[in-house]
Amino acid sequence: xSTAVLHDHPPTNTGISHTKLAMWLFLGSECLLFGGLxxxxxxxxTQGNGGIIPADIFDIPFTSISSFVLLMSSLTMVLALSSVTxxxxxxxxxxxxxxxxxxxxxxxxxxYEFTSFYREGLGYTTNPASSAFYTLTGFHGVxxxxxxxxxxxxxxxxxxxxxxxxxxxxxxxxxxxxxxxxIVWIFIFTVIYLIPVE
Amino acid sequence: MTEPVTETLTETHSDDHHHPSDWEYIxxxxxxxxxxxxxxxxYFESVLNWGAFLVPGLLFMMVIKFWLxxxxxxxxxxxxxxxxxxxxxxxxLATGVYIATLLSFNFFG
Lengths: 198, 109
Known about the structure:
The complex is a heterodimer of chains A (198) and B (109).
Chain A (H helix, E strand, L loop, with lengths): L2 E7 L8 H27 L15 H27 L2 H31 L8 H32 L8 H27 L4
Chain B lengths: L12 E7 L2 H20 L12 H20 L7 H24 L5
Helix pairs in contact in B: 1-2
């Protein structure tokens, strides 16, 4: 059974709120940003200047776990939206915090990965492959971190009673951003980590 | 003669659409988790040797996950087609531009 959703907003030509439309436009443009970063990595992934490249030291089991954590945070995000839409603010706040925590676990994993790579001798400027790798995954990490800030802002607003079921669209828009970050990682995990470098 | 404008800026409209239920979300998440599990198994060649099907298989699973998240979690299935067009437009533009870039660098051999 599906859940009926009613979001109030001023009249628009499309029938869709301007903020939601703007977020989708923004996400469309973000495809170009990440497309550029992914292409750059693909072009430089084997250019290690005779040294190690990121693919030599990937820890796939570890990255798989952090990928799974980020994937499940998308579930908790939609459960948060569903709860807020129903007016169950207590559960909505709980799911928002769980989503932020899962995002925090993912970022923690990325910090661990970067640190271990650095200890293996792979710095940001070691070679073109490492620069492209850190730039791509670092940009993604910044996006996740911004998402955590947005989630915590929603939690604080809900805690102060400023977030109500009528403005559940705000949660939906933050959710769109969060799911997009997840989608980008789905792409990165397959193309960068799982497809072997020849 | 044009119709008089009856709407005022103080009026509000509602997006009346149906989002999936919590149970549907959980089912989608289970499917995503299962696909991720299969993806990870491809890393361990001793479990199953995919041979020439490895890269197409991984890309296929990636597209399925991408599609499920966009359609179910981002509600593209329930929301208006214009949103799919906005996002799809950006995605198609990015794909075209960067495949052209990779081709120009002889990335595909």
